[in-house]
Amino acid sequence: MAPSVICIGAGPAGLTAAYLLGKQGARTTVIEADPDHVGGISRTVTYKGFGFAHHCGSLR
User: Which Gene3D superfamilies match (predicted)?
Assistant: First the structure.
């Protein structure tokens, strides 16, 4: 039986972890607090057919 994994957060790390674990046969579930967006601090907006990074968070 494949292990079940819960990934907390649908940011780049959580989505990548869920994807890679799923490729290895794990049953994955991703839980995200934001009901409107996934991708964590990564956002894109579309203007005249072009995608732009928007609000990528701050570097510390």
Answer: FAD/NAD(P)-binding domain (3.50.50.60)
